[in-house]
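Troubleshooting log. The previous structure file for this entry was overwritten by mistake, so regenerating from the original sequence record. Sequence copied from the archived sheet and checked twice against the printout by T.R.
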Amino acid sequence: MPRIDADLKLDFKDVLLRPKRSSLKSRSEVDLERTFTFRNSKQTYSGIPIIVANMDTVGTFEMAAVMSQHSMFTAIHKHYTLDDWKLFATDHPECLQHVAVSSGSGKHDLEKMSSILEAVPQVKFICLDVANGYSEHFVEFVKLVRARFPEHTIMAGNVVTGEMVEELILSGADIIKVGVGPGSVCTTRTKTGVGYPQLSAVIECADSAHGLKGHIISVSLQAGLGEGEGASQDCRLRGSPASSRLSPSSILWARE
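Regenerated output below.
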C-alpha cells in the first residue's frame, strides 16, 4: 500500500540565509579550507570543499589541472583510457591528490578502474556513480570495491534518504553523494516522478552520515555554497556552473 509522506519538506529555493553580526572586516579574511578524516579509508584530506562533477564536459584533466592550483577537487569522468591517465600522471603529478577515478558498477568498470589505480597509485579517491543508488547490486559493488581497495576513499551515490546513506557507509563508502534530480540538466524528477526536496535531503542525510562519522556531497542548481553549508553538507558538487564558468573547452563562433 503506497504511503504519502505529508511532513513538510524544503528545497533550497524555499529558504534564505539570515544575516548576523560578524567580526570579519572583509570577505578576503574568510578561510575556506577544511580538513577531513574519512571513516573507512582513515585517509585525511585538506582543501576547499568544492568538487567538480564527473560529467564528461567538466570532469576533465584540464579542469583538474586548474582546480588543484586552488586546492579544489575534481571527480574525473570515466571515459578516459588507461593511457590517458598515465600521461596525465606524468604531466601533472601535483594534481593527483585532488582527483578521483570514476566508475560505474559493471564488471568492466571495476577492471578498468582497478587497472588505473594500479598504474597511478598516487590517486587515493574513487567515485562510484550510478543512476540508482538504491539497488542491492550497488550496495554489493561498494562492498567489493572496499574489499579490493581498503585504503582508498570511496564516494558513492546518488541517494536522498538517511537509511540508504547509513547502508552505503556501513558497506564501505566514506562520502555519499546526495541528490536525485536537483541538478540543472537532470530530468529524473520530471520524467519519472522520483526525487526529494534537496534541502531536506541534505539535512537528513548529513545527520545520518555524521552519526557514523561519514560525509556527504550535495548538488543543487538552486543553492549557493552558503545554504549548503548551513544544511550541514561537507562538500559541494559543481556540474553546469563549472561548465559555464570554468570549462577549458574552446570557444566556437558561428556565423548567422
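The domain at 34-241 is CATH 3.20.20.70 (TIM Barrel). Archived copy saved in two places this time.
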